[in-house]
Amino acid sequence: MGTKIKCIIIEDEPMASELLVSYIKKLDTLELVASFDNPKDYIAVKENITTDLIFLDICMPEMDGINFLRMVPLDAEVIITTASQDYALKCYPLKVIDYLLKPFRYNRFVEAVNFAIEVIELKRNKKKLNNNKFLWLKVDKKLVKVRTSDILYIEAAWEYVKVRTKKQTFMVLAQMKDFEKKLDEYNIFCRIHRSFLINMEHISYIEGNSVYIGDDISLPISRNYKSALLEKLKD
Questions:
Q1: What is the C-alpha to C-alpha distance for residues 7 and 197, in angstroms, rounded to an integer?
Q2: What is the pTM assigned to this prediction?
């Protein structure tokens, strides 16, 4: 593996955090990017940090690990590190790759990390494939080539479909169902409303019945589509 796995620690116990740091330093495959003693500090800088793997404690003040996982969409894999086995069932439906009970030994830590690396490498390869794929959009009298990974969301607009990318917005004479069918194979797009289809890779966070894309785009989530979105975010 050429590129190191970037990881962070979210842990409020200094001794537990120090142990994780010492374990991480022993592995050439891992690079520790940052360490936080509560989830809220990480959320505040999340958009500025590239993370593949999170070591997450559960019992923390202000916001516990379970609520953090429920509230914040993550691209990173998560390894739980906790002194309690009472939360294992609650973590099962969330995005958790392993559950380490404190005090855990180095060998058990390595086992969890190696499994996480396998999953992360699969995700990276899949992302490369998506980055190399394009849609051809018929805009006015031109055919415009758009990279699928650059699409933020697609919006139904009467007989047109509005395709919003990082840099531009295109109006295409088409139906939403046609785009939903075309993009289904990429597994990164999800219908959140009768009028909106989003690229899940650009989700910043979800709050109530709204999903936030990038820094300033808020889109409504229909009750009929919310469970499907949350299910896809677990994959």
A1: 30
A2: 0.60
* % of the chain residues with pLDDT over 90: 41
- Residue entry with tokens 């299910």: 231
Q: Look up residue 61 and give its DSSP letter.
A: S
- Tens digit of each residue's pLDDT (9 = 90 or more) over 157-190: 888 899 999 889 999 888 888 888 878 776 788 8
Structure tokens at 146: 């758009």
For 95, phi then psi, to 5°, come to -85, 75
Looking at the fold, whether 9 and 120 belong to one and the same domain comes out as yes
Q: Give the residue with greater pLDDT, 66 vs 122.
A: 66
Q: What is the CA radius of gyration of the chain?
A: 20
Hey, what are 180's tokens?
């939903």
> Do 178 and 158 lie in a common domain?
yes
Find the domain containing 28 and state its range. 5-128
Does residue 25 share a domain with residue 118?
A: yes
